[in-house]
Amino acid sequence: MKIDSATRIYVAGCAGMLGDAVYQHLSGIAEVRATDINVNEPWLGYADVRDYSQMRRSIGEFRPDVIVNLAAITDLEECEREPENAWLTNALGSENLGLIANELDATCVYISTAGVFDGARATYSDFDAPNPINCYGRSKHYGETFVHQHVRKHYVLRAGWMMGGGPAKDKKFLNKIYRQLIEGRRELFVVDDKVGTPTYSVDFARGLHVLLESDLYGLYNQGGEGVCSRYEVAQEFVRLLGLERDVAVNKVESSFFAKEYFAPRPASEALVNLKLRARGLNVMRDWRTCLREYSEVFVRAQRGLA
Question: If you classify domain 8-165+198-227+269-285 with CATH, what class do you get?
Answer without folding.
Answer: alpha beta
